[in-house]
Write a structure and sequence with these properties.
By secondary structure, this protein is α/β, with parallel strands linked by helices. It has helices spanning 15-20, 54-61, 83-88, 105-115, 120-133, 149-160, 179-194, 206-212, 230-236, 242-257, and strands spanning 2-12, 27-38, 42-47, 69-74, 77-78, 90-94, 167-171, 198-203, 215-220, 223-229. Helix 4 crosses helix 5 and helix 4 (105-115) runs parallel beside helix 6. It starts with a strand and ends with a helix.
Amino acid sequence: MIDIQHVTKIYKLNRKQMEEQKTKSNMKVAVKDVSLSARPGEIFGILGPNGAGKTTLLRCVSTLLEPTEGQITVNGFDTRIQGEEVRRTTAFLTNEVKLDAHFSPKYQFRFFGRLYGISEEQIEARRKELFEYFGITDFEDKRIEELSTGMKQKASIAVSLVHDPDVVIFDEPTNGLDIITARAVTDYLRILRDRGKLVIVSTHIMPEAQKLCDRMAMIINGSCVFQGTLEEALEQNHTEDLEDAFFEIYRQVTEEEQ
């Protein structure tokens, strides 16, 4: 389970960043007083436009960043003071994850499995399952630099899941993937959910979220403006389309801020 309580993340901007963002303030509030919870056996979506604060929030959950204020617990472990325990049971997947170009998927899978302290038998069982599912087996001994973009991404996903984590956090799961690879990824996220895992995905693609997510939170300008099921989002906004519901919520928030 993930429990986020009153989390705020503030960045200090340098002069160049201030100029790029056309602001006179050297402080940027990326996430503002966000509270939400997600539980095992569900796919929970963090939805919002680019720059809304989704990635910053997930990086705080996965211990890559420390919140400025508030508390986050993952499976009962505090991300500030028990980061190692959090990382043992969590996978943070992003399209920015890059494997070493000079080594093969098989070598790197075994390398990271050993880092997690997994037995050779468990590593081999996990490798066989994940490589067969994602179609990596025929290319497992090739160097990463020899693989296609889609195959590199699938290898990165497989390696990230070597330790069979209880919590899988995926930032923009299908961004930049071809349609076949994207479908394989989203189908596997459903498999993980059905195995009792907690799956967190961030996306700005509403049709994808409508098909994939059991519950969701909408983040706009760093704030959580909705949390609930797909059905609740549609009912509250009198629509059958999540994209229409999101734009209605966005309109309301924008009007309130003016």
